[in-house]
Design a protein that fits this description.
The protein folds into two domains: 8-203 and 381-400, Glycogen Phosphorylase B (Rossmann fold); 224-369, Rossmann fold. 38% of the residues lie in helices and 18% in strands. It is built from 14 helices and 15 strands.
């Protein structure tokens, strides 16, 4: 029989409706918390269909929620189960509640959605606050959720402002206030603002969990390596194909080897097109997924990517020159983030409306031969600072107990 872990119990929640960012962020924090002497066991409740692709930290396990997929701005549907969305939401809500009751957490860390998808975790959080008042509850928000109007509508419909005021003990912003201020943009009350801490980007080098995957051997010793990544891939086909077309048309610098990463959610109808195109091109490799993306980016000469939070954090940590082509619909979160970082000289940005072969070629040449990007003034120690905030909550919990 395994030895029972001593220490506090951490419950992490990651709703995961689209892409990989939420579960990866939760695993980054779980990995950091696993090193705390106060932590005995961690349970991640997640809707990610790919949670088992990542190596779990010690003394950590997963409760898997039925998957949903985003079918429009703020609209979701079951990914696999042939049932109605309302029925699926009730199922997920009951599973979350059952996990919390059975696990009896001392600390709860919610990622990104303070009320959960469709408000699914709100009842559990209120129950914990009522029945276990010593349990500390925190939410980690990425630097940008979406534009203020969209966030205001979503948060009003799910009672987020009331949760921030009445239920949460700490609001962690995984970003930098000088670049974007959610407290101002999203109308935090004075009470919620007093609980808020800006901890910086979760960009600590080596913090992204992986299975040891490293950049493949160079395609040729005399070629600089450019990595193209589209995050989870659900909406990245346009960027991948634009790069492939620019290579095929001879618009890219000639002395480059290409590593293309499509993402596990790249539409199935797109994968054969990419593979066929790559087979006809020298010095180009393609793969669907790599958990070791952070190290791949750090090994590259330049990167072309979309503007998701985790990818941007990995770019900033790597120091590699990067061109970011952000998603602009149905959310503008990536556009807001990329615009702010480009204004500071930390990345280059290209609007997807300008995504054509000649412009791409010029941008890649600038990345490879131009000045290195500046990371000066960026707070890239977010994992350590967020962990310290949660350690303080754990200390309060231990004293209260």
């Amino acid at each position: 029989m395994p030895r029972l872990a001593r220490g506090l119990r951490i419950l992490l929640y990651s709703h995961d409706t689209f892409g990989l960012g939420h579960v990866r962020r939760s695993l980054v924090m779980a990995s950091a918390l696993a090193g705390s002497s106060r932590v005995g066991a961690q349970l991640l409740v997640t809707g990610s269909p790919l949670a088992d692709r990542f190596t779990l930290p010690p003394r950590t396990d997963i409760v898997k929620l039925p998957c949903v997929t985003k079918v429009g701005g703020g609209t979701y549907a079951p990914r696999s189960l042939p049932i109605g969305f309302d029925e699926l939401l009730c199922l997920r809500r009951d599973l979350i509640l059952a996990a919390a009751r059975a696990f009896r957490p001392d600390i709860v860390l919610v990622d990104h959605a303070p009320a959960g998808m469709g408000g699914e975790i709100a009842a559990t959080l209120r129950l914990i606050r009522r029945e276990s008042p010593r349990t500390r509850i925190a939410v980690g928000l990425r630097d940008v959720v979406d534009d203020a109007a969209a966030v205001g509508a979503e948060w009003s419909s799910t009672g987020v402002h009331e949760l921030l005021e009445d239920v949460y003990d700490r609001v962690l912003i995984y970003g930098q206030r000088s670049l974007y201020d959610p407290v101002r943009e999203y109308g935090f009350s004075a009470r919620a603002a007093a609980k808020t801490r800006f901890v910086g980007y979760l960009a600590d080098r080596g913090a992204i969990p992986a299975d040891g995957t490293r950049l493949a051997r160079p395609l040729a010793a005399d070629r600089r390596q450019v990595v193209v990544t589209v995050g989870g891939g659900g909406d990245g086909a346009h960027l991948l194909m634009a790069v492939v077309d620019a290579i095929a048309d001879g618009r890219m610098p000639p002395d480059v080897g290409w590593q293309l990463v499509g993402g596990p959610f790249l539409p199935t109808e797109v994968r054969p097109r990419v593979r066929r195109a790559v087979r006809s091109l020298p010095h180009v490799r393609y793969q669907d997924f790599t958990p070791g993306l952070g190290r791949m980016l750090a090994s590259a000469s330049a990167v072309i990517s979309m503007g998701g939070y985790n990818t941007v954090c990995e770019l900033l940590a790597s120091g590699t020159p990067a061109l970011v082509v952000p998603r602009v619909e149905p959310r503008v979160e990536q556009l807001i983030r990329a615009t702010a970082l480009a204004a500071g000289g930390h990345i280059r940005m290209l609007h997807p409306a300008e995504l054509e072969a000649e412009r791409l070629g010029r941008e890649v040449a600038t990345l490879l031969d131009g000045p290195r990007p500046s990371r000066e003034g960026l707070a890239l120690d977010g994992v350590a600072r967020a962990t310290a905030e949660l350690e303080a909550l754990m200390a309060r919990r231990a004293v209260a107990a």
